[in-house]
Amino acid sequence: MNAVFASRTAQADEASPPVLSVRGASKRFGSVLALAGIDISVSRGEILGLLGDNGAGKSTLIKCISGVHRFDSGSIIIDGAITTIRSPGEARFAGIETVYQDLALFDNLTPAQNFFAGREISGPQWLPRGLRFLKQRRMDAETEALLGNLKVTLPKLDAVVAMMSGGQRQAIAVARSTVFARKVVILDEPTAALGLRESRQVLDLVATLRDQGNAVILITHNMEHVIELADRAVVLRQGRKVGELVPTKDNKQELVSMIVGA
Ligand SMILES: Nc1ncnc2c1ncn2[C@@H]1O[C@H](COP(=O)(O)OP(=O)(O)OP(=O)(O)O)[C@@H](O)[C@H]1O
Ligand SMILES: [Mg+2]
């Protein structure tokens, strides 16, 4: 066993300190208390399932972690240090990659342009046009190689994303996070509205993210996906954390009851 693999395995065990924790997080939108004193934590090499019915507060929680919203109160702790996240850029800088439920990709860009949006392969702006074109070619080639490695197949790499199916778009968005993830990856319903084959592809990518040593937060309404992938599941209901357990086939019904509050 090589050293890198050994350290990853060690990091994944229960004794490993959480890479990301949220403590006492609350958030109000006008009269709606979207989050009420939530605590969660996730370690490297671990997948945390975040469950709850529509409107439970899942997206609000992860949008606060990824800098889209701010908690009214509560703290975010990254690698043991209280961290202020004021924008999506700051979240990224802190090592948090997010695949949002909405707005996962730019419609008018190609997959390669989406991959490198905001972090184009660097080179001086005064480069002659021909060389900029080479940069584009390199980004295209890297994107194609990467999607190939991940076994994500697209009919046409040079088409803009608006022309692609929901599954293809979702696969691109998740594949993108496997490249840039450094610590924490948050996926908000990455398999929503996908067919079986497309879901499979995305679930395999989620497992890849975990195997890369990332801490993964997976939001989904699909119990089979939670049981297959999540090491732990946290259930939110009306902004409160109502349960936390290791999801298995045997406690699926218990999980569903927690979600709906039966
Ligand atoms: N930007 C916003 N402005 C006002 N209210 C909001 C906003 N975002 C969310 N809410 C409210 O906060 C509550 C939690 O919403 P949230 O989107 O976090 O739920 P969710 O658990 O992600 O649901 P779903 O499974 O449907 O995606 C809901 O009552 C919602 O209407
Ligand atoms: Mg949501």
Spell out the blueprint of helices and strands.
Elements: H1 3-12, E1 20-29, E2 32-42, E3 47-51, H2 58-65, E4 73-78, E5 81-83, H3 88-93, E6 96-99, H4 111-115, H5 129-149, H6 166-180, E7 184-188, H7 196-211, E8 215-219, H8 223-229, E9 232-237, E10 240-245, H9 252-260
Parallel strand pairs: 3-8, 3-9, 6-7, 7-8
Antiparallel strand pairs: 1-2, 1-4, 4-5, 9-10
Helix pairs in contact: 6-7
Structure characteristics:
Rossmann fold; 9 helices; alpha/beta; 37% helix; single chain; 262 residues; binds adenosine-5'-triphosphate; globular
Question: In a few lines, what is going on in this structure?
Answer:
This protein has 262 residues and is an alpha/beta fold. It has helices at residues 3-12, 58-65, 88-93, 111-115, 129-149, 166-180, 196-211, 223-229, 252-260, and strands at residues 20-29, 32-42, 47-51, 73-78, 81-83, 96-99, 184-188, 215-219, 232-237, 240-245. The longest helix is centred in the middle third of the chain and has 21 residues, at 129-149.
